[in-house]
Design brief:
This protein is mainly alpha-helical. It contains one helix and no strands.
Length: 35
């Protein structure tokens, strides 16, 4: 298998995980500000 498939998979996991973390942090911040 071409090594670029693993490179793109790593990029996708990193960007996806970062997006999830940003959304979670933003919602936690909004919830904390609302209290």
């Amino acid at each position: 298998m071409n090594q670029w498939a693993f490179v793109w998979a790593a990029y996708a996991l990193t960007l996806g995980g970062t997006a999830v973390l940003v959304v979670w942090a933003w919602t936690a911040m909004r919830r904390a500000e609302g209290e």
